[in-house]
Amino acid sequence: DTEVTQTPKHLVMGMTNKKSLKCEQHMGHRAMYWYKQKAKKPPELMFVYSYEKLSINESVPSRFSPECPNSSLLNLHLHALQPEDSALYLCASSQTGTGFDGYTFGSGTRLTVV
Amino acid sequence: QKEVEQNSGPLSVPEGAIASLNCTYSDRGSQSFFWYRQYSGKSPELIMFIYSNGDKEDGRFTAQLNKASQYVSLLIRDSQPSDSATYLCAVLSGGSYIPTFGRGTSLIVHP
Fold first, then answer.
1. Do A43 and B51 touch (CB under 8 A)?
2. Which of A23, A54, A78, B47 is 20 to 30 A from residue B83's alpha carbon, by CA?
3. DSSP secondary-structure letter at A85?
4. pLDDT in tens, A3-38
5. CA distance B82 to B88
6. Are A61 and A79 in contact (CB under 8 A)?
7. At residue A45, does pLDDT exceed 80?
8. Does residue B39 sit at the A interface (CB-CB below 8 Å)?
Protein backbone atom coordinates (compact mmCIF):
# COMPACT_ATOMS: atom_id res chain seq x y z
CA ASP A 1 0.00 0.00 0.00
CA THR A 2 1.75 3.18 -1.17
CA GLU A 3 -1.12 5.58 -0.79
CA VAL A 4 -2.39 8.27 1.48
CA THR A 5 -6.17 8.12 1.54
CA GLN A 6 -8.23 11.20 2.31
CA THR A 7 -11.96 11.39 2.88
CA PRO A 8 -14.21 13.00 1.92
CA LYS A 9 -13.04 14.18 -1.51
CA HIS A 10 -15.48 17.09 -1.48
CA LEU A 11 -17.15 18.85 1.44
CA VAL A 12 -19.57 21.76 1.55
CA MET A 13 -20.28 23.10 4.99
CA GLY A 14 -22.01 26.06 6.56
CA MET A 15 -20.26 28.44 8.89
CA THR A 16 -21.98 26.94 11.93
CA ASN A 17 -21.29 23.31 11.06
CA LYS A 18 -18.80 20.91 12.60
CA LYS A 19 -17.13 18.46 10.27
CA SER A 20 -13.99 16.34 10.15
CA LEU A 21 -11.46 15.44 7.48
CA LYS A 22 -9.80 12.07 7.65
CA CYS A 23 -6.42 10.88 6.42
CA GLU A 24 -5.01 7.37 6.53
CA GLN A 25 -1.71 5.77 5.51
CA HIS A 26 -0.43 2.24 5.97
CA MET A 27 3.13 2.73 4.79
CA GLY A 28 4.58 2.94 8.29
CA HIS A 29 5.46 6.59 7.74
CA ARG A 30 6.41 8.37 10.95
CA ALA A 31 5.35 11.90 10.11
CA MET A 32 2.01 13.21 8.87
CA TYR A 33 1.09 16.70 7.76
CA TRP A 34 -1.88 18.90 7.00
CA TYR A 35 -1.48 21.46 4.25
CA LYS A 36 -3.92 24.01 2.85
CA GLN A 37 -3.74 25.06 -0.78
CA LYS A 38 -5.54 27.91 -2.49
CA ALA A 39 -5.84 28.13 -6.27
CA LYS A 40 -2.56 28.92 -8.04
CA LYS A 41 -0.68 29.05 -4.73
CA PRO A 42 1.79 26.58 -3.22
CA PRO A 43 0.73 24.31 -0.37
CA GLU A 44 0.79 26.08 2.98
CA LEU A 45 1.78 24.07 6.06
CA MET A 46 -0.75 23.88 8.88
CA PHE A 47 0.28 21.07 11.23
CA VAL A 48 2.96 18.41 11.59
CA TYR A 49 2.66 15.22 13.60
CA SER A 50 5.81 13.27 14.27
CA TYR A 51 5.54 9.88 15.98
CA GLU A 52 1.90 10.75 16.76
CA LYS A 53 2.85 13.93 18.61
CA LEU A 54 2.01 17.42 17.37
CA SER A 55 5.37 18.98 16.58
CA ILE A 56 4.41 22.04 14.52
CA ASN A 57 1.33 24.26 14.57
CA GLU A 58 1.84 27.08 12.08
CA SER A 59 -0.29 29.54 14.08
CA VAL A 60 -3.44 28.03 12.67
CA PRO A 61 -6.74 29.45 14.01
CA SER A 62 -8.41 27.31 16.67
CA ARG A 63 -11.37 26.61 14.40
CA PHE A 64 -9.03 23.98 12.91
CA SER A 65 -8.22 21.20 15.39
CA PRO A 66 -5.92 18.33 14.44
CA GLU A 67 -5.93 14.89 15.99
CA CYS A 68 -3.68 11.88 15.54
CA PRO A 69 -5.39 8.82 17.11
CA ASN A 70 -2.63 6.44 15.97
CA SER A 71 0.36 6.25 13.67
CA SER A 72 -1.79 5.58 10.59
CA LEU A 73 -4.58 8.06 11.08
CA LEU A 74 -4.80 11.84 11.06
CA ASN A 75 -7.95 13.90 11.47
CA LEU A 76 -8.69 17.57 11.05
CA HIS A 77 -11.74 18.79 12.94
CA LEU A 78 -13.44 21.87 11.55
CA HIS A 79 -15.77 24.21 13.43
CA ALA A 80 -17.16 27.67 12.70
CA LEU A 81 -15.17 28.10 9.52
CA GLN A 82 -15.22 31.21 7.37
CA PRO A 83 -15.74 31.40 3.60
CA GLU A 84 -12.06 32.31 3.20
CA ASP A 85 -11.19 28.86 4.59
CA SER A 86 -12.46 27.33 1.36
CA ALA A 87 -9.48 25.55 -0.18
CA LEU A 88 -7.96 22.18 -1.04
CA TYR A 89 -6.85 20.48 2.18
CA LEU A 90 -3.98 18.09 1.65
CA CYS A 91 -2.71 15.40 3.95
CA ALA A 92 0.83 14.16 3.42
CA SER A 93 3.14 11.66 5.03
CA SER A 94 6.86 11.05 5.02
CA GLN A 95 8.80 7.99 6.06
CA THR A 96 11.22 9.58 8.49
CA GLY A 97 9.94 13.09 9.10
CA THR A 98 13.43 14.46 8.46
CA GLY A 99 12.37 16.13 5.22
CA PHE A 100 14.98 14.28 3.17
CA ASP A 101 12.58 11.72 1.76
CA GLY A 102 9.89 14.00 0.36
CA TYR A 103 6.17 13.71 0.82
CA THR A 104 3.45 11.37 -0.32
CA PHE A 105 0.31 13.46 -0.65
CA GLY A 106 -3.24 12.26 -0.41
CA SER A 107 -5.74 13.21 -3.11
CA GLY A 108 -7.05 16.06 -1.00
CA THR A 109 -10.40 17.31 0.27
CA ARG A 110 -11.94 20.17 -1.67
CA LEU A 111 -13.66 22.24 1.05
CA THR A 112 -16.25 24.91 0.34
CA VAL A 113 -17.57 27.01 3.23
CA VAL A 114 -20.89 28.71 2.53
CA GLN B 1 13.21 34.57 5.00
CA LYS B 2 13.88 31.46 2.93
CA GLU B 3 12.65 32.01 -0.60
CA VAL B 4 12.10 29.68 -3.52
CA GLU B 5 11.40 31.38 -6.81
CA GLN B 6 9.83 29.94 -9.93
CA ASN B 7 8.52 31.60 -13.06
CA SER B 8 4.76 31.07 -12.92
CA GLY B 9 4.54 30.67 -16.71
CA PRO B 10 2.77 29.29 -18.51
CA LEU B 11 5.65 27.65 -20.32
CA SER B 12 4.37 26.38 -23.63
CA VAL B 13 6.32 23.76 -25.60
CA PRO B 14 5.41 21.59 -28.59
CA GLU B 15 4.99 17.86 -28.19
CA GLY B 16 8.33 16.07 -28.43
CA ALA B 17 10.40 19.07 -27.33
CA ILE B 18 12.47 19.45 -24.17
CA ALA B 19 10.75 21.42 -21.42
CA SER B 20 13.10 23.23 -19.03
CA LEU B 21 11.76 24.36 -15.67
CA ASN B 22 13.88 26.46 -13.34
CA CYS B 23 13.90 27.21 -9.64
CA THR B 24 16.18 29.47 -7.60
CA TYR B 25 16.52 29.53 -3.83
CA SER B 26 17.88 31.99 -1.33
CA ASP B 27 19.29 29.81 1.46
CA ARG B 28 22.84 28.78 0.58
CA GLY B 29 22.67 26.06 3.25
CA SER B 30 19.87 24.20 1.47
CA GLN B 31 20.42 20.48 1.27
CA SER B 32 17.59 18.70 -0.52
CA PHE B 33 15.58 19.64 -3.56
CA PHE B 34 12.33 18.20 -4.80
CA TRP B 35 10.13 18.46 -7.87
CA TYR B 36 6.41 17.79 -7.56
CA ARG B 37 3.94 17.59 -10.42
CA GLN B 38 0.40 18.81 -9.79
CA TYR B 39 -2.37 18.33 -12.32
CA SER B 40 -5.20 20.84 -12.20
CA GLY B 41 -7.51 20.10 -9.29
CA LYS B 42 -5.33 17.23 -8.06
CA SER B 43 -2.73 16.82 -5.34
CA PRO B 44 1.06 17.14 -5.80
CA GLU B 45 3.03 14.04 -6.73
CA LEU B 46 6.77 13.70 -6.03
CA ILE B 47 8.59 13.02 -9.29
CA MET B 48 12.26 13.78 -8.56
CA PHE B 49 14.59 14.65 -5.72
CA ILE B 50 18.25 15.59 -5.80
CA TYR B 51 20.83 16.21 -3.09
CA SER B 52 24.16 16.52 -4.90
CA ASN B 53 25.48 18.91 -7.51
CA GLY B 54 25.10 17.67 -11.05
CA ASP B 55 22.45 15.77 -12.93
CA LYS B 56 20.09 13.03 -11.87
CA GLU B 57 18.10 11.19 -14.51
CA ASP B 58 14.91 9.16 -14.18
CA GLY B 59 13.30 8.18 -17.44
CA ARG B 60 12.37 11.31 -19.38
CA PHE B 61 13.10 13.51 -16.36
CA THR B 62 16.46 15.03 -15.43
CA ALA B 63 17.02 17.16 -12.36
CA GLN B 64 20.02 19.47 -12.40
CA LEU B 65 21.46 21.08 -9.27
CA ASN B 66 23.99 23.89 -9.08
CA LYS B 67 24.53 24.86 -5.46
CA ALA B 68 27.10 27.54 -6.27
CA SER B 69 24.54 29.39 -8.38
CA GLN B 70 21.63 28.34 -6.13
CA TYR B 71 19.39 26.91 -8.78
CA VAL B 72 17.77 23.62 -9.56
CA SER B 73 16.20 22.69 -12.87
CA LEU B 74 13.92 20.00 -14.20
CA LEU B 75 14.23 18.91 -17.80
CA ILE B 76 11.49 16.88 -19.42
CA ARG B 77 12.57 15.20 -22.65
CA ASP B 78 10.14 14.20 -25.39
CA SER B 79 7.37 16.24 -23.73
CA GLN B 80 3.87 14.83 -24.01
CA PRO B 81 0.49 16.56 -23.63
CA SER B 82 0.06 14.43 -20.48
CA ASP B 83 3.01 16.35 -18.96
CA SER B 84 0.86 19.49 -18.92
CA ALA B 85 0.65 20.39 -15.24
CA THR B 86 2.05 22.74 -12.63
CA TYR B 87 5.53 21.80 -11.42
CA LEU B 88 6.35 22.76 -7.84
CA CYS B 89 9.93 23.11 -6.66
CA ALA B 90 10.50 22.44 -2.95
CA VAL B 91 13.72 23.15 -1.08
CA LEU B 92 14.81 21.84 2.30
CA SER B 93 17.06 24.27 4.10
CA GLY B 94 19.82 23.20 6.40
CA GLY B 95 18.57 22.62 9.93
CA SER B 96 14.96 22.39 8.81
CA TYR B 97 12.77 19.39 8.20
CA ILE B 98 9.99 21.27 6.45
CA PRO B 99 10.54 22.20 2.79
CA THR B 100 9.74 25.59 1.33
CA PHE B 101 7.60 25.37 -1.79
CA GLY B 102 7.86 27.64 -4.79
CA ARG B 103 4.70 28.98 -6.42
CA GLY B 104 5.03 26.51 -9.28
CA THR B 105 5.46 26.77 -13.03
CA SER B 106 2.56 25.92 -15.31
CA LEU B 107 3.66 23.78 -18.26
CA ILE B 108 1.54 23.36 -21.37
CA VAL B 109 2.58 20.80 -23.96
CA HIS B 110 0.65 21.33 -27.17
CA PRO B 111 0.23 18.67 -29.88
1. no
2. A23
3. G
4. 999 999 999 999 999 999 999 999 999 999 999 999
5. 16
6. no
7. yes
8. no
